Amino acid sequence: MLRNMKSDIQAVLENDPAARNMFEVVFTYSGLHAIWAHRIAHALFKRKWFTLARIISQTSRFFTGIEIHPGAQIGERLFIDHGMGIVIGETCEIGDNVIIYQGVTLGGTGKEKGKRHPTIGNNVVLASGAKVLGSFKVGDNVNIGANSVVLREVPANSTVVGIPGRIVKRNGARVADRLDHTQLPDPVIEMLRAMQKEVAELRAELEKERRDKQERQDKHERHEKHEKHKQPVAGGETRP
């Protein structure tokens, strides 16, 4: 327990640039308090002290705004940043070195029994407002973008964005800065940019065609004017 607590504190110091010292982290970080309360509740849950475990869980929720079911399994060095509104379901499993931002939901999709919540791999980042719903696996080294809704399995080394979640990066190099969850590609924006480029090209072609047509018309008018000046006048002479 003490080893896990020290590891949890170290995870905060490493991942949060606002964390100044261990004293501040221990007494002011609600995400850390929620994790510690969960470790106690989970130990009681495994011993079938379900009601007491839920009481501890709900008390932690009241003070921190983070709801973690006592049955959820959490690995080492979980970092919860600004954790208000986070919900983690009963059968959820979270690996090591995971980062979760505010508003994240790791939930189910119905009233089915048994395993109904996601399994999160190691080194995963769940950005603000992300929803991962269902009993599937999210692989290691995955980034899930802000407000994404993930409804199916995500392979390792992937980046997911959008509603529903779409994989926009797969089997690529791991993101250098795991905390920079704003620099994620958006396929919708990329499609709109491609359409905008195509429209610009079509406009350029139309403008070129308009200029060519105007040049042909001007040339024709000059030719007609020249021919008109060459027409004969009275006395058998031609115009100069």
Number of helices: 5
How far apart the termini lie comes to 109 Å
Query: Major sheet: order of its strands?
Result: 3-6-9-12-14-15
Query: Percentage of helical residues?
Result: 40-55%
Structural class, from secondary structure content? Answer: alpha/beta
Radius of gyration: 32 Å
Q: Encode the helix/strand succession as letters.
A: HHHHEEEEEEEEEEEEEEEH
Q: What percent strand?
A: 15-25%
Q: Estimate the mean pLDDT confidence.
A: 84
Largest sheet: 6 strands, mixed
Number of strands: 15
User: Low-confidence parts, pLDDT < 50 over ≥5 residues?
Assistant: none
Shape: elongated
Summarize the structure.
With 240 residues, the chain is an alpha/beta fold.
Can you describe this structure?
The protein is built from five helices and 15 strands. The strands form three sheets. A six-stranded mixed beta sheet has the order 3-6-9-12-14-15. Strands 1-4-7-10-13 form a five-stranded parallel beta sheet. It has helices spanning 2-15, 22-28, 30-46, 50-64, 187-229; strands at residues 67-68, 73-74, 79-81, 87-88, 93-94, 99-101, 105-107, 119-120, 125-126, 131-133, 137-138, 143-144, 149-150, 158-161, 166-170. Helix content is 40%, strand content 16%. The model has no long low-confidence stretch (mean pLDDT 84). The chain has 240 residues and is an alpha/beta fold. It starts with a helix and ends in an 11-residue tail after the last helix. The chain is elongated. Belongs to the transferase hexapeptide repeat family. Keywords: Acyltransferase, Amino-acid biosynthesis, Cysteine biosynthesis, Transferase. Residues 203-221 have a biased composition (Basic and acidic residues). Its EC number is 2.3.1.30. This is Serine acetyltransferase.
